[in-house]
Amino acid sequence: MPRRFRAVEVLVAALTLLFGAACGSRLPESDFTGHDAASEPPARAEPLRVGIVTSATSPVGGRAFTGPRDGALAYFERLNARGGVDGRRVEVHTCDDGGSGVGNNECVRELVDERRVVALVATAVLDYAAAPRVSAAGVPDIGGQPVGPAYETYPHLYSIYGSLAPRTGDEPGWDGKLYGGTEVYRYFKREHGARTAAVVSYNQSASAAYARLVTQGLRAEGYEVVTEQVDFALPNFRAVAADLKEQGADLVFDALDSHGNARLCAAMDDVGAHVTAKVTNAQNWTDTVAEDYEDAPACRNSLWVTGSSRNHQDTGHPAVREFRHAMKGRPLSQWALEGWAAAMWFTDAAKTCTRAEPETAATRACVDAYLEKGGPYDADGLLVPVVFEHRDEPPETRTTCLSVARWRDGEGWVTQSGDMNSNCFDVPQLAYKP
């Protein structure tokens, strides 16, 4: 779908310059076509196999991509403890692609061709080089994180945020262009009266490209924009922080990695540069903020985040409470919650397929059809309703809803501005090249 500009899509490409379980025997396709449940109960116990591909050891760092995997694993563990999908256990096969295109192709070969998984779930990878292969095999990829344009290009790939693009496999979006909304900038202007925003990037092509996208959106919303750039190899964050103070920016957006964000925040504290909001993205919506920003208490308490899923600390919501209970000591983050939602999405599809056509036993094609034709999906209220359409032309405007949270020491991420499904804006959709 046309969506807000997502930092992780463009930024991760820049980060490559900064810095599972093994899959086994080949299984025949018949393992996934099922049998007559009434006449042969043992076949009903045959597990449903799913795959999770994660760049767990990518050049970006060990924690960057593992949240969706952890959330999905927690969901499937809980599901199996409760009897699985109508009595069928979900058998999960994970694969670490190492953050490389070669590794990604190898993981997909093992999971799709050898393990014959019904679906991939909660994909979070640095280089989705095997996306054409997944699509050609007709394997649904459910709830993947859209790092790069694959989920806006190929059929059978369903990002956790939805899509309205044609997804014919030829090129991303519409004529090679994607579209993003300006709702984040509208929110801070409406709710906090922000008028001046700074955008900080590295002098590296992908980082600078994302900074230009943010700048474009901010200017479309009437902001005065201050652009700051630091050297990729030897960044002088103190000089940037001093200029932010001089310019009197209300907001700070960035095209930096997590480590760079923490260093920028520390520099802002050192020079006394205080802002209304230091805005980050869902990838950094984690419970490790106090540790990651330990040298920047003032800036840390000005961290805000926006996204398309319910705050993972919103314990007043029953689905969030269930997620947190099932995580059992695993790191808590927004990406983990979205991985949990992706696993739920697969489960709802598999249940629908099994009950509607027991003889098919949740084939790839049936699960794919559920995703393709199903109505808006919200994962028991954890997601802003997700839709998939194939529009020939992108909309000029779109109503988009936001989940917003702010970090507070002693409280963690505190939800702002009420329920995410009511925090909505009709905003222009701006084109950009991925």
From TrEMBL:
Gene3D superfamilies: 3.40.50.2300
Stored CDD domains: PBP1_ABC_ligand_binding-like
Signal peptide: 1-24
Domain Leucine-binding protein, first and last residues per copy: 47-410
InterPro entries linked to this entry: Leu-bd (IPR028081), Peripla_BP_I (IPR028082)
Keywords for this protein: Signal
Family: Belongs to the leucine-binding protein family.
Name the UniProt record assigns to this protein: ABC transporter substrate-binding protein
Organism: Streptomyces luteolus
